[in-house]
Write a structure and sequence with these properties.
Blueprint (H helix, E strand, L loop, with lengths): L1 H12 L22 E3 L24 E6 L18 H13 L8 E6 L14 H23 L7 E6 L1 H12 L1 H4 L3 E7 L9 H4 L2 E2 L8 E3 L3 E3 L5 H7 L18 E2 L4 E2 L2 E2 L7 E3 L8 E3 L3 E6 L2 E6 L23 H17 L1
Parallel strand pairs: 2-3, 2-4, 4-5, 5-7, 6-7, 8-15
Antiparallel strand pairs: 1-3, 9-10, 11-14, 12-13, 14-15
């Protein structure tokens, strides 16, 4: 069933025609506010959102967070979303900034770029068109990051966060910009995308997080409910080339539990500081603590407890990919607060 679903999905989502390189100098200008979804001083910044009942506050000396949103462009008319993608794609991008990046707004100022994301179908193929589409998207993310970094005071701590496609780009960015980031990273939240401990992390100069007060480390998790079937993830990842050039192995996949802040952690629902509980729309969402537990197994994060109905987007195989942040929003927030305090103490 899953193999059939994979083939059908590929046919339905493959963009039409071949990748067409955009005109030179047509990319985003990150000196302009219009090129950002979230940025300090931006009018109507969605990253400042908090659930009902949560007090919006920020530490006295905030860090700076660079956040990259996941794929929101689901059309087939092109390989990369237009920079000014409106409609559902634009609304979804804003929604992810609101529901994911907001977890870091108690400890940081948040910067979230608009970028010419690769269309959804690019992730179902390994051909030249898909590679070029992903390369274009990454080029925008890298340019946005360089603008972000140039705007930060020299000793300001930095949090990096992303999800899905955003995490793919963030992982590459961690490797290519590791010298510029040395000594400044509070933590990198590379969620919703598989990370290889032995063949990806060495290229970034960072280790996996093993303690909740560790800094300059990487958290990565992919959420599934039982019975879990992650074959759609593993089949497209195992054997691919890691950032070090070596092949990725199934047993090398990283899982850091956001409830414990530790690699291969196990936590009962009581440890969860709050899942987002939407009431028809995110604006009215509340925080439900103690509902969802989680444990790492074989590189994936398996959830249990009273898993709330978060929406209709659970993927085949009981994959809660879309809700990687929503399930653990309160605990991710607490994790960032702990790690920033530890970074400052050091």
């Amino acid at each position: 069933m899953f193999q059939f679903g994979d083939r059908a999905l590929t046919r339905m989502a493959t963009p039409q025609g071949h990748f067409q390189a955009p005109p030179k100098d047509s990319g985003p200008d990150y000196s302009r506010d219009a090129s950002w979804i979230a940025k300090p001083g931006l009018t109507d910044d969605p990253s400042g959102w908090v659930p009902e009942g949560v007090v919006a506050s920020r530490v006295e000396e905030p860090a700076a967070t660079f956040y990259v949103h996941p794929t929101t462009y689901l059309e087939r008319d092109r390989w990369n979303a237009p920079l000014d993608a409106g409609g559902e794609a634009g609304s979804r991008a804003r929604l992810f900034v609101e529901s994911q990046a907001s977890a870091f707004n108690s400890v940081s100022e948040i910067w979230a770029p608009r970028y010419r994301q690769a269309a959804y179908g690019a992730f179902l193929l390994t051909n030249a068109d898909a590679a070029k589409a992903l390369g274009l998207a990454y080029g925008d993310v890298r340019a946005a990051f360089d603008a972000f970094l140039a705007a930060q005071p020299a000793h300001k701590p930095i949090i990096l966060a992303a999800h899905s496609q955003g995490s793919l780009h963030l992982l590459r960015l961690l490797a290519e910009r590791k010298d510029a980031l040395k000594g400044r990273i509070v933590a990198a939240y590379v969620a919703g995308w598989p990370v290889a401990v032995g063949t990806d992390l060495p290229a970034t100069g960072l280790a996996a997080c093993t303690e909740p007060t560790e800094t300059s480390c990487v958290l990565s998790w992919q959420s599934f409910a039982e019975p879990a079937n992650p074959s759609l993830v593993t089949s497209g990842w195992v054997g691919t080339k890691g950032l070090t050039g070596a092949k990725r192995e199934r047993e090398d996949m990283l899982c850091v539990n956001p409830l414990t802040g530790t690699r291969d952690g196990v936590a009962d629902p009581s440890a969860n500081k709050g899942s987002l509980l939407p009431d028809g729309q995110l604006a009215k969402a509340s925080l439900g603590p103690g509902m969802v537990g989680a444990r790492c197994r074989d590189g994936f994060l398996l959830i249990d407890g009273m898993v709330p109905n978060l929406g209709p987007y659970v993927l085949p195989g009981n994959n809660y990919h879309v809700y990687d942040y929503a399930l653990f929003w309160g605990s991710i927030r607490a994790d960032a607060e702990k790690r920033l305090a530890a970074w400052r103490a050091h």
